[in-house]
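Hi support team,

I submitted a single chain yesterday and got back a structure, but I'm not sure I'm reading the token output correctly. Could someone confirm the output below corresponds to the sequence I sent? I've pasted both exactly as they appear in my results page.

Thanks,
R.
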Amino acid sequence: MPEVYVAAGSNVEPEKHLGLASAELGKHFPGVRFSPWYRNRAMGFEGADFINFVAGFLTDLPVEDVVARLHVIEELCGRAREAPRWAPRTMDLDILLYGDRVVDTVALRLPRPDLLKRAYMLGPLADLAPALVHPTVHSTIGELWRRFDRAAHPLVPVPASNAGGGA
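Hi R., thanks for writing in. Yes, this is the structure output for that exact sequence:
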């Protein structure tokens, strides 16, 4: 059964939407684990800071079914599918890894190509699964995070009292 890792982020009422997404992830994927939550600057556009976390869970669902469930959760949080890519978000849920599976289709690429470039994905994943070996780079997530230029991409921990169900 593959272990799936999903990045979650919001910059529109983020505590509210991430709390809802955490609860829904728990309903859809029993046993889900969460990283701490982090605040970081919006990337690619001017906007409010995002709050992000990574969730991990085991599932026997095919990757397409996991994506469909994540879309349902995004929609429950008010995300419109036709929203511009580089814009404020109520909820963004992206699969980072689906076990050691490599997927390269028009609709989905795994491991997620920007995982190694985005502190808000790699940092929380390193909190959750530092010993996990990246399936194509063949280094542990903890080692990749240690080598990452954190000064250029600062993450600010969100206090546990503000982190809803995700911390």
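A quick pointer for reading it: Residues 3-162 form a domain with the Alpha-Beta Plaits fold (CATH 3.30.70.560). Let us know if anything else looks off.

Best,
Support desk
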